[in-house]
Amino acid sequence: MASTVHVALGDRSYDILIADGLLGRLPELLKPLQLGSRCALLTDSNVAPLYADAARDALAAASWRVSVQMIAAGESAKSLAVAGQLYEQLAEARLDRKSFVLALGGGVVGDLAGFIAATFLRGIDFVQAPTTLLAMVDSSVGGKVAINLPQGKNLVGAFYQPRVVIADTATLRTLSEREFRAGVAEVIKYGIISDAALFAELERELPRLMARDAALLARVIARCCEIKSDVVSQDERESGLRAILNFGHTVGHAIEAVTEYGRYLHGEAVAIGMLAAARLSQKHAGLGAAEVDRIESLLRRAGFDLTPPDAPFEQLLDAMRSDKKAREGRLRFVLAKRIGEVVVSDAVNESEIQEALHVRRR
Length: 362
Ligand SMILES: NC(=O)c1ccc[n+]([C@@H]2O[C@H](COP(=O)([O-])OP(=O)(O)OC[C@H]3O[C@@H](n4cnc5c(N)ncnc54)[C@H](O)[C@@H]3O)[C@@H](O)[C@H]2O)c1
Ligand SMILES: [Zn+2]
Known about the structure:
Low-confidence stretches: none
Strand order of the largest sheet: 1-2-9-6-5-3-4
Number of strands: 11
Bound molecules: nicotinamide-adenine-dinucleotide, zinc ion
Helix content: 40-55%
Order of helices and strands: EEHEHEHEHEHEEEHHHHHHHEEH
Strand content: 15-25%
């Protein structure tokens, strides 16, 4: 049995299905959606040799006409140039308005495939089959699709919901330790922003989680999807509440930017950002010292190196101010009142951030 999380968005509502082995059941899971007969299966060069053949064969056996489109693995494929090539390949494969795009891969494939689906022929059906932990708990939920520009990440995009999300947890077994851990940072984030019981479960079950125990994974991923979809259902277009998903991200994004996206995975930078946010929460939101310690200790046990990069603080500050989520240069922080409840604050000042990060000034 798969765990199912329903994302309630009126006539754009859909289900997220989570279980081991779902890719083998693609045809039966897609049938009820009455999708067209042609499909573009978009995947990347790491995922293709692992899962694309099986997915294609299963669909073909159920008489879908599948054209497999493979992009190079890595963030640089989320570009206008690659999107341009894909549009042409989809046109050549004669996809029509009833056809659909199936994203099989991590967040890069999902964001790019969703962007293509949102724009090709003014929008065709889109199905997500996320294969990284980050994609399962975060990028495949919520309907944000985007590509990057040389000037910044995710600068061109849309809100475009998939028809269904099929998260086969068996695919996580081939994910590298480092990529898996990066996804765990977002899982820990969900505990902090809205579920103290999830946080406590992570504290108890961390070794089993890191060993990728199937039943635990399915339960934890479903809970994370529930939390994100609750937030998204209330605030699809990020006018307010959706901001709470950015706990740890003000600093995390700045760390990624100053290190030019080369040194830290997103989740690794967010882990450092969450510790800083926890310390700031103690000062501004009443988070207890013991809870700050619990957050730090869970992150360390998960294997995160929580040392900020050796960059001058001014550089980090500039990056925080130019983040597209900063409001007219004002720094916004999501702070925890306690584990399981957060507030958004504009009250944090520079020297407090510096102190929270334990970094030097020039
Ligand atoms: N749309 C959103 O709301 C949202 C939210 C968060 C992140 N994102 C985006 O997601 C992207 C990051 O996603 P990601 O962390 O999944 O990165 P990714 O897609 O680059 O995947 C990470 C690496 O793992 C490989 N991989 C994927 N699945 C695998 C598997 N099952 N086995 C072995 N290797 C596998 C990939 O080829 C890649 O090398 C970023 O572009 C980010 O902007 C989007
Ligand atoms: Zn994130």
